[in-house]
Automatic annotation (TrEMBL):
HTH araC/xylS-type domain: residues covered: 233-330
Keywords: DNA-binding, Transcription, Transcription regulation
Keyword presence, Disulfide bond: no
Species classification: Bacteria, Pseudomonadati, Pseudomonadota, Gammaproteobacteria, Pseudomonadales
Protein name: AraC family transcriptional regulator
PANTHER family xref list: HTH-TYPE TRANSCRIPTIONAL REGULATOR GADX (PTHR47894), HTH-TYPE TRANSCRIPTIONAL REGULATOR VQSM (PTHR47894:SF1)
UniProt key word DNA-binding: yes
Coiled coil: none
Length: 332
């Protein structure tokens, strides 16, 4: 659902390349509608639209689609030109191979490789030439290429595994949303593994649909939440947006055709619980509504099922480190 929110880690990480080059990023944050206080609070989160806007502003400001993480900039329009180079390919395999060749023309760019391993296909990104301390660019490339490939064939490509050539970072808790499925850390390389049957599928897009797609890409590809078919995403869909009428765990388990015990166990394996899922959904809905000025804070509290505004204030501060009023306030 669209109300998924983005952890403040990704806001800080996105700005690192520009800050390393000595730029003051506060004006960009304000233009994107993001409170500078968000950067200091690890629990804070932002609306996907704010994050999309920040990325677009950064690309424009730096004239670099690699956001300052590569030794050589990738001028704005490079991604769009790559898309035009692949849009007339007959199959996904041809499109991805041509896209990898396209980026291979640029010195010191991260190398993208498509390979087959029996019934599987692997898309690898070599980030050894990058200055990327938070792994922001390499993870962004994995997300963008996965979602671009899915868009090209008109169906979501199921990831069998995602591998990372580094140990679990502090933001690994966000991976469920970005890379659903098994994840391997401290692996020999950084890559996506998926079934090779997708490679023979025809492209369902053309130049006309590409033009529309590129209006907000690749920022929207990166910022648009995509929970796919993970258990937590399916439960969020079943809960819906009406917090006052949420089904209980037994009802949700029944709708998912499993016992309550099995559901609890699966959530535990994903490092979550039913109560935590409800809290996260409430938090994301709160951020969604606070980012839009049409509802007073008291009405938002009621919509989220809080008996009084003070309870909402306490809960929101616990979730994000900021009060609802401080979150909504925009600086000049």
């Amino acid at each position: 659902m669209r109300e998924r929110t983005i952890a403040s880690h990704f806001v800080r990480a996105a700005l690192c390349g520009a800050e390393r080059q000595g730029y003051d990023c506060l004006p960009l944050l304000r233009q994107a509608g993001i409170q500078p206080a968000v950067l200091e609070e690890p629990r804070a989160r932002v609306d996907p639209e704010q994050f999309t806007r920040l990325l677009q502003l950064l690309w424009e400001f730096l004239d670099d689609e690699y956001l300052g993480f590569c030794h050589q900039p990738s001028k704005r329009g490079t991604f769009a030109m790559m898309c035009y180079a692949i849009i007339h390919c007959r199959t996904l395999e041809k499109a991805l191979s041509r896209g990898a060749l396209f980026y291979g023309l640029f010195a010191e760019a991260p190398t993208i490789t498509l390979s087959r391993e029996g019934d599987w296909a692997r898309l690898s990104v070599d980030d050894s030439t990058l200055w990327d301390p938070d792994h922001f660019l390499v993870e962004s490339l994995l997300v963008i290429w996965h979602r671009l490939a899915s868009w090209l064939i008109g169906q979501r490509i199921r990831l069998e595994a995602t591998s990372f050539a580094y140990a679990a970072p502090a933001h690994a808790g966000e991976y469920d949303l970005l890379f659903p499925g098994p994840r391997h850390l401290a692996a020999p390389g950084t890559s996506l593994l998926f079934h090779a049957r997708y490679l023979s599928m025809p492209l369902l897009q053309d130049e006309r649909s590409l033009k529309q797609f590129l209006e907000h890409s690749p920022a929207d590809l990166l910022a648009r939440p995509d929970g796919g078919d993970s258990l937590t995403s399916r439960i969020r869909r079943l809960l819906g947006r009406d917090c006052s009428d949420w089904p209980d765990l037994d009802t949700v388990a029944q709708q998912l055709h499993m016992s309550p015990q099995t559901l609890r166990r699966h959530l535990r394996e994903e490092g979550s619980s039913f109560q935590e899922l409800k809290d996260h959904l409430r938090r994301d809905l709160a951020i969604y509504h606070l980012g839009r000025d049409d509802l007073p804070i008291q009405d938002i509290a009621e919509q989220l099922g809080f008996s009084e505004p003070s309870a909402f204030h306490r809960a929101f501060k616990k979730w994000t480190g900021l009060t609802p009023g401080a979150y909504r306030a925009q600086e000049g």
